[in-house]
Amino acid sequence: MSEAMRIAVLGVSGRMGQMLVQAIGESERCMLCGATERAGHDWVGRDLGEAMGIAPRGVTVSDDPLEVFAGAEAVIDFTAPKATVAHAELAAQARAIHVIGTTGMEAEDLAKLEPAARHAVIVRAGNMSLGVNLLTLLTRRIAAALDPDYDIEVVEMHHRHKVDAPSGTALMLAEAAAEGRGVKLADVSDRGRDGQTGARRRGDIGMVALRGGDVTGEHDVIFAADGERIILRHVATDRMIFARGAVKAALWGRGRQPGQYDMIDVLGLRD
């Protein structure tokens, strides 16, 4: 059996950060070697377990990412776009696998990941779950099979605390639909309708974001034509599916060549 992979969690005090700690602890194939939080956070300098209200873990929360990256084989990052871009540079320097679940990243943020991917493995996905990635494949294939007489709408709902919209998963699904049709999402995206908008343009891909309650994540892809609708749906009820998927991605990255990958690669579903 190979040595357990050393994984660090970035932004460890958040909900996903704490679930990642749990997911790493569940696996015999990896171990938690480090954790970070922003400077000034009250977890910095404390034992991670004590900060979480559980048994001591022997890992001290640090506000120095460089120190943490140096001791890690992989880092898992569900933070914020600006932080993730900075982390990518550090991961490249350390030759550490960088698993990115951060959402809300714009095209300019993604472009800044490219230099880092020349030196390290980056696995980035808007959603780390098996079900959503299967839904992405189905969306691409159905969009390729149907002509633009089928209007495509992506509808997502999340908890009231989510700060970005559309969700990373909704964007991933919309991108898949656009790829299936052989168009660029930026050219056909319709993200909001209010007032006298006029008739829906043929070929547009609509996205609607709903927020409320404690919804973990619900995504529908609707193909609507005269006389029929095809509806693909994924409902997440436990955020641990994302944490376990991220750990799976980190383990998959061991021994891979530098470059950018996604969960389709991790799951072996690439066409």
Automatic annotation (TrEMBL):
Pathway: Amino-acid biosynthesis; L-lysine biosynthesis via DAP pathway; (S)-tetrahydrodipicolinate from L-aspartate: step 4/4. PROSITE patterns: DAPB (PS01298). It is found in: Cytoplasm. Signal peptide: none annotated. InterPro entries: DapB_C, DapB_N, DapB_N_CS, DHDPR_bac, NAD(P)-bd_dom_sf. SUPFAM superfamilies: Glyceraldehyde-3-phosphate dehydrogenase-like, C-terminal domain, NAD(P)-binding Rossmann-fold domains. Its EC number is 1.17.1.8. It holds the Pfam family DapB_C. GO terms for molecular function: 4-hydroxy-tetrahydrodipicolinate reductase; NAD binding; NADP binding; oxidoreductase activity, acting on CH or CH2 groups, NAD or NADP as acceptor. Keywords: Amino-acid biosynthesis, Cytoplasm, Diaminopimelate biosynthesis, Lysine biosynthesis, NAD, NADP, Oxidoreductase. (S)-2,3,4,5-tetrahydrodipicolinate binds at H159, G168, T169. GO terms for biological process: diaminopimelate biosynthetic process; lysine biosynthetic process via diaminopimelate. NADP(+) binds at R38. The active site is at H158, K162. Residues 5-128 form the Dihydrodipicolinate reductase N-terminal domain. It catalyses: (S)-2,3,4,5-tetrahydrodipicolinate + NADP(+) + H2O = (2S,4S)-4-hydroxy-2,3,4,5-tetrahydrodipicolinate + NADPH + H(+); (S)-2,3,4,5-tetrahydrodipicolinate + NAD(+) + H2O = (2S,4S)-4-hydroxy-2,3,4,5-tetrahydrodipicolinate + NADH + H(+). The keyword NADP applies. Catalyzes the conversion of 4-hydroxy-tetrahydrodipicolinate (HTPA) to tetrahydrodipicolinate. Belongs to the DapB family. Homotetramer. This is 4-hydroxy-tetrahydrodipicolinate reductase. It comes from Algicella marina. The gene is dapB.
